[in-house]
Design a protein that fits this description.
Layout lengths: L1 E7 L13 H20 L4 E6 L2 E3 L8 E11 L3 E10 L4 E13 L17 H5 L2 H4 L1
Antiparallel strand pairs: 1-4, 2-6, 3-6, 4-5, 5-6
């Protein structure tokens, strides 16, 4: 699992129990998955189609730092399936796991469009060998 983003839990992120509000965490996950899919699919028009069962395992409190990890499970013709884990860096515990998040590439009409991707690409893959390109 590659962890891309860290969030600092602030007072506005808390529920009445003084712990991280689950809705805020889901917002962070959805945003992170969208950004990841936009970059991988090279299309700024990406939507969330499906989020599987969410398993809350622990929580976070004000001042804790959480990090969001994403793995690519599969590529479809118009979609990309991700999994996610969020962990509390301070307590060294997993907060939440989501097995399946489907992001779909769409066109200007709002309909799914093929993206042509079959594997994860890193910056070095897109730029190629710097000596060859010089």
């Amino acid at each position: 699992m590659r962890f891309h983003t860290r969030k600092w839990v602030k007072p506005e992120d808390l529920n009445p129990n003084g712990t991280l509000f689950g809705g805020r965490l889901l917002e962070w996950i959805d945003e992170e998955c969208a950004l990841y899919a936009i970059i991988q699919l090279e299309n700024h028009r990406v939507v969330t189609k499906f989020i599987s069962e969410i398993n809350f395992r622990s929580s976070a409190k004000k001042g804790d730092i959480v990090e969001i990890g994403i793995d690519v499970v599969a590529f479809g013709i118009t979609s990309m399936t991700l999994s996610c884990e969020v962990r509390n860096k301070m307590m060294r515990e997993t907060i939440i796991t989501v097995d399946k998040i489907i992001m779909v590439s769409i066109g200007y009409e709002g309909k799914p469009i093929p993206h042509g991707k079959t594997k994860v690409e890193f910056v070095k893959d897109r730029l190629g060998d710097s000596e060859t390109n010089a």
